[in-house]
Specification:
Rossmann fold, binds guanosine-5'-monophosphate, single chain, 9 helices, 4-stranded mixed sheet, 18% strand
Amino acid sequence: MSPTLLFGKSFQNYKSEVTNLLNHKDVQPPILLILSGPSGVGKDAVLSRMRDLEEPYHFTVTTTTRTKRNGETDGKDYIFVSQAEFRAQMEQDGFLEWAEVYGNYYGVPRNQVKTALKKGKDVIVKIDVQGAKTIKSLAPNALYIFLAPPSMDQLEKRLKERMTESPDSLKIRFETAAEEMKSAGWFDHVVINHENQLDLAVAEIQNVVKIARLKQMETPNFEII
Ligand code: 5GP
């Protein structure tokens, strides 16, 4: 049987309809994707690759009081602010979530998320595990992805290779990571970031998002925050 008969229209049309359905955003609420996982697992690398692929997300830029690392750009990697500025925004309820992580403050700017979602744009928030839990209480139906290392040895190696931490900070991050790994179970999906396989992790995230879009057609989405 020819594909034309099978689908009652040309196969090409059918294919493009399915593609539209999987990628369609006009008729669907946007996806709020919470990407979490231990420090050093490669969340930034994944996001950077997704940006390079020009994925049509709003990539939320977190506000932080930590000092800028070499190679980081203010407004792109983080919005770097003083403790006083952070406190002022906190008092104005400017953060969807904020937390002290390794002695520095980090906050997800509420306006960025709200504005993008209202425009119907998909949003990605990169956050640590405790922050993901806080967001879960606000938006239980958002999509929660835990990025995991292939092994704890690999994670330790990556943290050491990154050479951004003092030995003490490295030790704390590693101990925290071991604790955070125990939380992987409550996420919707766990994606393993294998060594030199960044594209594979990104492809898996893209597939998870496609499935979430289909599910979202059946179940109402989260309230826009
Ligand atoms: P780093 O200083 O290495 O960039 O980030 C340290 C940790 O803070 C990472 O695990 C990162 O996911 C987390 N983090 C980044 N932004 C936020 C945020 O807005 N809220 C919370 N709770 N954690 C964040």
